[in-house]
Amino acid sequence: MEHGVAAQTWLALAAMILAAKLGGEAALRLRQPAVLGELACGVLLGNLPMAGLAEVARGPEIGFAAELGVMLLLFQVGLESSVREMAKVAPRAGSVAVLGVIVPSVLGVGASMLLLPSSPMTVHLFIGATMCATSVGVTASVLQGVGALDTEEARIILGAAVIDDVLGLIVLAIVSAVAMTGGGMPEVSTLARIAGTAIAFVIGSLVLGLWTFRKALRIASVLRAPHVLGAVSVAACLFMAGSSAAAGLAAIVGAYAAGLLLDDVTVKPFSDDQTSGMHKLESFVSPIAAVFAPVFFVRTGMNVKLGGFDGTTALLALVLVVTAVIGKLASGLGVRAKSADRLTIGLGMMPRGEVGLIFADAGTRLAPSGTPLFSPGVYAALVTAVFATTLIGPPALAARIRSRRLATARAVKRDGESETAPGDSA
Fold first, then answer.
1. What is the dihedral sign for C-alpha 260, 382, 142, 295?
2. In whole angstroms, what is the distance from residue 86 CA to residue 22 CA?
């Protein structure tokens, strides 16, 4: 007689965590983002006969572990962002972010309507929403790896990616709510109400949440329980996620908003270490996310059924990869600074990474009329596009930065030689 969670669930969870770490290690050794290795391991596990592992992984217990992981991951992404920093870079990065949302979304919707003409409008909208995602974490790691975080392009890319995430989450919230209205294209008044709810929640949570969180952190700062600041912060993340879901929006919108609220300026006054309040908070959240977030990526990969591809969905995957690349490259056209390289910025906006996977996964969990929004083939095509852009973007960005540095060094050398030439002849 079994009590509590079944033994198979614990064994499956252990296998998924170990597989994720091995896959992530392999990807890193190949100089690729760890998320690609985790996703690839999931695809492998989900398409091999593994004693019912895939069936157990789709169960509610591991589903909850994956959901917790994605909430903490979005919370982390929010912690690494800042409303104040977004406001500073908005004049330069805002147009890049807007183009980075509009162009890929329009291209994604167009590709879906062309290749899936019989699908409801909400499927097309959701595919477009997924295409607008940008991974701040993947791009930041590339820029850090090549020592380019202090460049003008890096500041524009990261600022635009953060703004892009906020806009993308609002788009996701609107499309998710539209999908739950029945699958057809709603009236303008309904669409306006849904959009208003999404925008009001994000703005309201940032305004009211800041005051509420400061109160909670003030109380937590006088408690003597270990790691109380981190525990209260995670509770705030889950509270915001629940509030977002209760408002009819995606729960990840609330988790991300909670991270935005808990920036260094907010946390530092209530930390016993005034020099590293955020470091203390992140050191509490990061180990938990490091365990549960990979479960989400492996589970996402396991939902990709390679046998679900047919001629149409294979073509859809190819077209989505092309439009995903073109859409983000076009965002570089929004750069106003003449000294910034538009191609570098476009390449930096390309990887969808974990954010794109989260968007795609949100679509699989929607079933407005009892039928999942995405068929297995469409979901596999979306994940393929996310995977491809995350694979193409980082090495292309690094190569572009290195080539520009080499060109600059050669130009400086030529200028130096031309300046010394008259003196040498004299």
1. positive
2. 35
Decide: 390 and 351 in contact? Cβ < 8 Å.
yes
Query: What are the angstrom distances between the C-alpha of 145 and each of 107, 139, 211, 397, 401?
Result: 31, 10, 37, 11, 11
Instruction: Tell me what pLDDT residue 83 has.
Output: 67
Cα-to-chain-centroid distance, residue 8 = 31
- In this structure, how many other beta carbons lie within 10 angstroms of the beta carbon of residue 44? 16
Cα separation, 175 vs 92, in Å, equals 28
Beta strands (DSSP E) in 268-405 are none
Is residue 113 a part of any domain in this protein?
Answer: yes
In a domain, 374, yes or no: yes
Name residue 59's amino acid: G
Identify the pLDDT of residue 426.
44
Q: How far apart (Å, rounded) are the C-alpha atoms in residues 414 and 96? A: 34
What pLDDT does residue 274 have?
Answer: 47
Note whether 332 and 164 are within 8 A (CB): no
Print the domain residue range for 241.
83-292+307-409
Tally Cβ neighbours within 10 Å of residue 426.
5
Contact 336, 95 (CB under 8 A): yes
Backbone angles phi and psi of 309, in degrees to 5:
-75, 135
What is the reported pLDDT for 115? 93
Q: Flag whether 24 is in a domain.
A: no
Q: How many domains would you assign to the chain? A: 1
d(CA 230, CA 385): 36
CA 174 – CA 394 distance, rounded (Å): 30
Residue spans of the chain under pLDDT 50: 1, 274-276, 426
Computed on alpha carbons and rounded to an integer, the radius of gyration of the chain in Å comes to 23
Q: Crossing angle, helix 7-29 and helix 277-302, to 10 degrees?
A: 110
Q: Is the pTM of this model over 0.85?
A: no
231 lies in some domain: yes
